[in-house]
Amino acid sequence: MAHARPFAGLAAMKERAASIWARSARKTGSRRSARTRASARKTAQRWASQEQANAKTASAETLAALADANRAYEAKFGHIYIVCATGKSADEMLALARARLANEAATELARSPPTSSERITELRLEKMVSG
Predict the structure, then answer these.
(1) What are phi and psi of 30, to 5 degrees?
(2) Which residue from 129, 48, 53, 55 is spatially nearest to 96, judged by alpha carbons?
(3) Where are the domains of the chain?
(4) pTM of the complete model
(5) I need a surface site. Which of 1, 30, 54, 121 has the fewest CB within 10 A?
(6) What's domain 41-131's superfamily in CATH?
(7) How far does the chain reach from its first CA to its final CA, in angstroms?
(8) CA-to-CA distance for 76 and 72, rounded, in angstroms?
């Protein structure tokens, strides 16, 4: 993204990010979460905390089940479970994880766009632009 600057606006940023995700998926066969540079990690962590705020009110049972689903997902697919958590409760995220665990690997990889990672990227680009 940095090498593609400057952008004409948010739409151009989103288009470029989508093309990077698509290229990455073709190259690696996966849409795993991208690693962030150290300088961006604090902001990304703060945003992730805000995006997952609804999970903080979940019961201990739901959080334990979500942790189990995360481990099962990683064991089955070889990468972490990623979901766009914005506006979702822990129960909703758990239901999505369980539904996705039922997928075959090829089905999970080919989920219709935008994938969770792509949607998270879009939301974070919007946050960057809006300040």
Answers:
(1) -150, 160
(2) 55
(3) 41-131
(4) 0.57
(5) 1
(6) Oxo-4-hydroxy-4-carboxy-5-ureidoimidazoline decarboxylase (1.10.3330.10)
(7) 18
(8) 6
